[in-house]
Amino acid sequence: MTVTEEGLDNAAQPEPQDRRSAMLEKIAALDAEHAKAAAGGGEKYIQRHQARGKLLARERIELLLDEGSPFLETQPLIGWGSDFPVGGSIITGIGVVEGVECMIVANDPTVKGGALNPYSLKRSFRAAEIAEKNGLPTINLTESGGADLPTQKDIFIPGGKGFRDLTRASARKQPSISVVFGNSTAGGAYVPGMSDYVIMVKEQAKVFLAGPPLVKMATGEDTDDESLGGAEMHSRISGSSDFLAVDEHDAIRQARRVVARLNWRKRGPEPKPFHEPDLDPDGLLDLIPTDLKEPFDPREAILRIVDGVGPGNTNGDQAFDEFKPLYGTSLCVGWARLHGREIGILANARGVLMSEEAQKAAQFIQLANQKDTPLLFLHNTTGYMVGTEYEQGGIIKHGALMINAVSNSTVPHLTVIMGASYGAGNYGMNGRAYDPRFLFTWPSAKSAVMGPQQLAGVMEIVARESAEKKGEVFDAEGFKGVKDMVEGMVEEQSLPFFLSGLGYDDGVIDPRDTRTVLGLCLSAIATQEIEGAMNFGVFRV
Fold first, then answer.
1. C-alpha distances in angstroms, 489 versus 83, 418, 492?
2. What is the pTM of this model?
3. How many Å apart are CA 406 and CA 426, to the nearest integer?
């Protein structure tokens, strides 16, 4: 297959300017939401925090990371659309410290003193899951007043999982480092208490199960912050602190030294030399139709994301080696490299998945597991095909075949939802319920049980049939209001900001950043060995 910047063989020319304009508008909205998350508790509380001589949470992260290295923030829009600040009062993500990829979790004390709300909890749990699956050390930059008490019913019971995760990480030889910059009280005291390494900042860190007022109420004892839980006390008397830092910069320096002494090494495959993509990633802005019912060729996306063959190639090498290109053509699958790392790709070519596509996918997933190769799923699917012909042809068992293969595959999976992701197609293409190592969405993405018009239409058909069975006249005009309401609700709830706010992805990203984001993910994945499945259970054939 010959590919040029002008287009792809057997593919219609893209519609340029309207698609680009629509995507740029969505990206501008995305940037605005990210700015809200970065603003933390707002200017008033930022100034108050800085007036105390303290660094902001994002400044602490920046100083912790190796100079010039990226930070892959995860779930920055969690809490969007809720009564809580966007971001959940913490910052999570993967960054490189002394050459070691680490999961970093930083409380943002400008948001209610860093108190944890239900979305903070979701975000921290996801961070722990990413660290566990990819074998990453964790660095907690701690300054929190504990739980947001008005929401304690949503925090207290599930919150204990965070402490369990810390101890299990230690047992797996995935160390946790806690740097305490301020309050770490009540349940929050267990974060340093259960970390492998603890650094406390002199005259700032306060770590205790109960502060002086509660101690007075519980026991009648009069005490002060420093005697009860100050950094010097814990460093000299209780032994709960391993290192005493003179200030925040010193604490960050000491955290970097701890990481430098971890004797850490990657166990996964090393990347090979690579070329930048053959097609300009900027062209991804022209790819997604404004109406997701219109199909687009995913090879356009693939060749703007994966490594290119480079100039002067005379060996007939291709950036993307497609597998079974003439069979099950609604699903495009094949092999490529991304930032020098081998991957298998499954991308929806024309939305709908039929029996041929499902069987092709299952075989391809088995092959990837046979050769220990991670898989990338690129979504634009309306789901599995329906109708008498397809049911008689076995679409259920063939869809089950594909979902079985996805479910039991043990190589790392990465998922990017580019366009539509409806119905069981979301499952077969490794949606969130199937535990991808990382899942990102484009601003153009939509996910739901089905499209808004289809769902509302189904409801109308059911209501009409119900009325006819009762011998009643169906009020089509009256039902129109219901249809409009349902369509609006489903449309809103299928949009990427809404789903990201619920924590159903690891972030909404600019399509042009896809290659970089996936490259960072693949590098983190390579911290551990990659081993494919040997047993897929029973396939219905």
1. 19, 21, 5
2. 0.92
3. 11
Domain 281-447+495-525 CATH superfamily: 2-enoyl-CoA Hydratase; Chain A, domain 1 (3.90.226.10)
All CATH 3.90.226.10 domain ranges of the chain, comma separated, are: 42-260, 281-447+495-525
In the DSSP assignment, the letter for residue 296 is -
Structure-block tokens of residue 207: 């770590």
Output the CA torsion 360→363→365→369 (10° steps). -160
Residue 177 structure tokens: 């480092």
266 DSSP assignment: -
Structure tokens that stand for 328 in this block:
């099950």
How far is the C-alpha of 401 from the C-alpha of 395, rounded, in Å?
10
pLDDT, tens digit, 9 for 90 and up, residues 260-317: 999 999 999 999 999 999 999 999 999 999 888 888 999 999 999 999 998 877 677 8
Q: Which residue has the higher pLDDT, 222 or 509?
A: 509
Up-side HSE of residue 194: CA atoms within 13 Å toward CB?
Answer: 19
Q: State the DSSP string of 126-195.
A: HHHHHHHHHT--EEEEEEE--B-GGGHHHHHHHHHHHHHHHHHHHHTT--EEEEEEEEEEGGGGHHHHTS
Give the DSSP letter string of 32-54: HHHHHHHTTT-HHHHHHHHHTT-
| Cα first-last separation, the chain | 32
- Written as six digits, the tokens of 491 are 């449309």
Instruction: State the fold for domain 42-260.
Output: 2-enoyl-CoA Hydratase; Chain A, domain 1 (3.90.226)
CA distances from 320 to 307, 308, 309, 386 (A): 9, 9, 9, 31
The whole-angstrom separation of Cα 134 and Cα 384 is 32
